[in-house]
Amino acid sequence: MSLLEEWEAGRHEADGRAYPTYRRGSGPAVIVIHESPGLTPEVIDFGDELVQAGFAVVLPHLFGSAHAPPRTWEAARVVPRLCLTREFTMFAAGRTAPLAGWLRSLARAVHATAEGPGIGVVGMCVTGGFALAMMVDPAVVAPVVAQPATPLPLGRRRAADVNLSAEDLAAVAERVAQGCPVLGVRYRHDWVTGTRFDTLERVLGDGFIRVELAGTGHATLTDHRHHEAVDAVVGFLRERLMSEG
Q1: How far out from the chain centre does Cα 5 lie?
Q2: What's CA 20's distance to the chain center, in Å?
Q3: Angle at which helices 227-242 and 41-52 cross, to 10°
Q4: Could you give the CA distance from residue 27 to residue 57 in angstroms, rounded to a whole number?
Q5: pLDDT tens-digit profile of 129-143?
């Protein structure tokens, strides 16, 4: 049985792109953008957890497998493809990934059919920076950056880069100054996240809520799930999306 059997399948087209989506639950909406290698059972489980917490959850499927345990070699196959695709910026610093346009359109579409003052977004790993790129659009009022891994931290510049153009970073800083905080979660010694939490703290000040976990794990909400990270994310989403209800 598919783990997505109880989710409503859809497809969103925008910005010359089209990707499948899966939706479940009611209440304020949260878009959960999966990590590598795909829309795995662990990501779906996290989505189900948010549904149980009172949210309408949307899972876009951007790459890799869906609703099935990934094969042991799948990450080794998916990551090189992401390095070559034009949708992501795995190596380029100071740029917003082209896929951000499609994701912002999805955010507007989801917000139009959901409760609450806006929507939440959770980006993870290679999609971690997308939560920042999406909050350029005012529909996003609860952005969560979980273990952001792009661009790959090869050298100091890339390690500090937050996967945004200068214009988008300025727009994010402006939204934070206007009262839209950003939550970031990662393992303290996760090398792939580079020093970008330091960058966010420097640029966003107190508007960046920094949650760092002990250890060297990576996937804070899924494969290496930590209750402190999950509790912080659920609490942040509730505060931002439900407190005005």
Answers
A1: 23
A2: 16
A3: 50
A4: 9
A5: 999 999 999 999 999
The continuous run of DSSP H or E covering 18 comes out as strand 17-24
143 vs 123: CA distance, rounded Å:
8
The domain that holds 203 is classified in CATH as 3.40.50.1820
Whether residue 2 lies inside any domain: the answer is no
Q: What does the alpha-carbon distance between residue 168 and residue 201 come to, in Å, rounded to a whole number?
A: 16
φ, ψ dihedrals at 97, nearest 5°: -60, 140
- My answer on whether omega of the bond before 151 falls inside 30° of 0, hence cis, is yes
Q: Report phi then psi at 123, rounded to 5.
A: -105, 145
Q: Tens digits of per-residue pLDDT, 17-37?
A: 999 999 999 999 999 999 988
25 inside domain:
yes
The parent domain of residue 183 ranges over 8-239
155 close to 177: Cβ distance less than 8 angstroms: no
User: How many domains does the chain contain in total?
Assistant: 1
